[in-house]
Amino acid sequence: MSRRIIGLTGNIATGKSAVMRLAAARGALTIDADGVVHELLAGDAGIQAQVVAAFGEGVRRADGGIDRAALGAVVFGDPARLRQLEAILHPAVRLAIARRVAGSDAPVIVIEAIKLLEGPLAAMCDQIWVTACARETQMARLRVCRGMDEASAAARIDAQSPQADKIARADVVITTDGLLRETETQVAAAWEAWESGGAGERGGRGEEESG
Length: 211
Prior knowledge:
- There is one protein chain.
- Strand 5, helix 9 and strand 6 form a beta-alpha-beta unit.
- This protein folds into two domains: 134 residues, Rossmann fold (3-Layer(aba) Sandwich); 72 residues, P-loop containing nucleotide triphosphate hydrolases (Rossmann fold).
- 51% of the residues lie in helices and 13% in strands.
- It has a six-stranded parallel sheet, sandwiched between helices.
- The C terminus is likely disordered.
- The chain is α/β, with parallel strands linked by helices.
- The relative contact order is 0.19.
């Protein structure tokens, strides 16, 4: 079977990490774009220099790495500053992901990125999977799993593009309001449909829901 690349996206606290774990259990190479960002900010001197030049010494840690919390405080809620940061990071992230894809012999690769559909990464993918759940589920997960208060959780959700926009461009939608086994059933169905040739290619949308 030829290599397949799945692009996975979805808004905050909609279950992307769970889908990534399920894909990894099926033998996929999983690449987390946010994890790549963390690696670049912690260990890439060139990226660090660009970030400090753009956002000031206040975002640099004592060891030379970037303080992500300090950087986040600068760009959160400021679209212009966020775009400035993305202009620095996104090309480097795409290059790092392309290298990992090229260096792997895994038959299936899953690339998770919160802004997958807003940039060129989507063009690398054979299918787009989107995780989705009710706003109430997102709020509960952010409060319980990340310790956010209600106002902070709502602000994080509202800062992202509408979930419906991502769903509209999906080949597969995985709804995650239910139990993990329901998510697993949807992943298995989408995976097996594609392997058997029953799932649509890019531009055709297959939607797997747990009801």
